[in-house]
Amino acid sequence: MTHTKPRRQTVTLGPSGATLTDVVDVARHGVTVTLTQEALDAVAAVRRHVEDLAAGDVPTYGISTGFGALADKHIPVESRAQLQKSLIRSHAAGMGPQVEKEVVRALMFLRATTLASGRTGVRPEVVQTMVDLLNADIIPVVHEYGSLGCSGDLAPLSHIALALMGEGPVIGPEGDQREASELMAEAGITPLELREKEGLALINGTEGMLGMLALALHDLDALADVLDLTAAMSVEALLGTDRVFVPELHEPLRPHPGQARSADRMLRILADSPIVASHREGDSRIQDAYSLRCAPQVAGGLRDTLAYVRQVAEREVAATIDNPVVLEDGRVSSNGNFHGAPVAYALDFLAIPVADAASMAERRTDRMLDPARSAGLPAFLVDDPGVDSGMMIAQYTQAGLVSDMKRLAVPASVDSIPSSAMQEDHVSMGWHAARKLRTAVENFRRVLAVELVAAARAIELRAPLRPGPATGAALAALREAGVPGPGPDQFMAPQLADAEQALRDGSVLAAVEQVLGG
């Protein structure tokens, strides 16, 4: 979620692969990629096996045959270079809007990681050219539709492979769209003349869905912390109790680590709050509503889902996905590792707690706006009832976002449409699961931004009572970001946009963490 640049300037790519942090740094922050000599040597050694097979008489899939349903067609030596070109040109069949630059960069980096493993059979210059394009910030145009998440993210990866050949549209460092050949010439990069197996090796992977999962995990790690913050601020604003967050009610009784962490964070965020202390005695309410009292359980469920999904993503980053793949003994073997089901399930799973946590946040916002349930706050947090509408329609926007997130939580991975003349008769739809998760993450940030604005305004309306140190720091950071406090109605959309940006750039969370001590 935080878009500040990392301290390091280079990611080194060797045969051992990459990390999820590497993916985010290269994709989002433009960190330079360097290939180790060890990786290049390993790639060259494996390539010799492919060249031996190419010179032999035995048909080998991807080297001397056609592809997919045409795998039984033997291709003569003189046609194999054209075979690779035809594969990429035909498979670069995407349609729809352009995919975001950071997604394409993630896809390119992850495929370069696979190629550098020395198990795909490409020449070293194929890996180097992919890295050179990344470092020159020449990014192929990839479209929204074209992957079924099986046999790899075929169309998206094919558009990238097309650019490596010096063909097709790309986005340059200045953001202008031009032909790949032009920008490569200006950057001093020689287009590739693909040889046996190389076209197939460039497109048979799950890197598109995996790249989007890595970015989503990075964003949701921070948004889980934001969720604890906005929930705690709502508890404070609604004169709720912090006693339900004490540790003896969590880990000893229900040992879910995410729940314990969220409860601990909420308790620390509310520590030393004069507002919370003001109603510890003489409060006639026995229990808070579920959206307040059960916040750690829901936020904790999100955290534990993130932990599981991170395991899946780390395993996939460590994998070598290609078909056929070159084994250690030199055999070139067909396999089904390109099937995106493990990643697709994780992507779909993650969309569920994100939607549910957003739904709970919206309920807290609505409670703050309703005078029948807000413990004395003015209706819709207005300045002048009847004249002002306060945050009435901001909650409409929030509710609309949540409704959309519920739809996005419907799994994509349970669908399958057979393709390639029934050769590929079951597909994962993992790319689609990833695309909808990206939208859900963006909506989640917006939902929390609305809760943050509402809770901050409600806390200030409790004056002369003061918020606690941590919630006060969040409130101050929000005001520094340009979001005004209570008063007559002002243009609301810019306020919500500024709050969203303050969550995106990490400034609100950083202010709170400084109080909490990390």
TrEMBL record:
One of its GO terms (cellular component) is cytoplasm. One of its GO terms (biological process) is L-histidine catabolic process to glutamate and formate. Its EC number is 4.3.1.3. Keywords: Histidine metabolism, Lyase. It catalyses: L-histidine = trans-urocanate + NH4(+). CDD domains: PAL-HAL. SUPFAM superfamilies: L-aspartase-like. Its main location: cytoplasm. GO terms for molecular function: histidine ammonia-lyase activity. Pathway: Amino-acid degradation; L-histidine degradation into L-glutamate; N-formimidoyl-L-glutamate from L-histidine: step 1/3. Belongs to the PAL/histidase family. This is Histidine ammonia-lyase. It comes from Micrococcus cohnii.
